């Protein structure tokens, strides 16, 4: 008989900046105590960056938008998917030294073992990033 996988942790938050703190807390509370503190820190940092991007760039501004967060372990990684109702495709940019924004995905690129952007089947976009449970440190 195959091993039954864990049910992913799943949350929906209002597309509002106050949700970023709530999402970080939810992720940290859902992780097992045996994970290294650096992995928990990195997952919370990824949560902040991805959720902030979803709120800023993917919410339609209609007031009732929600952003979705899913966290699950698989294949030696913790995977984080942040989804929003927007149709844009987030892209890695290299802002100049005087730019105040635009470095979120550079941070994701630096932290994540792998990441990608995927359209959702019905509406919106998901950014998925994974961190290796066995990474050095």
Automatic annotation (TrEMBL):
Keywords: Kinase, Serine/threonine-protein kinase, Transferase. InterPro entries: Anti-sigma-factor_SerPK, HATPase_C_sf, HATPase_dom. CDD domains: HATPase_RsbW-like. It comes from Streptomyces ambofaciens. This is Regulator. Pfam families: HATPase_c_2. Residues 13-127 form the Histidine kinase/HSP90-like ATPase domain.
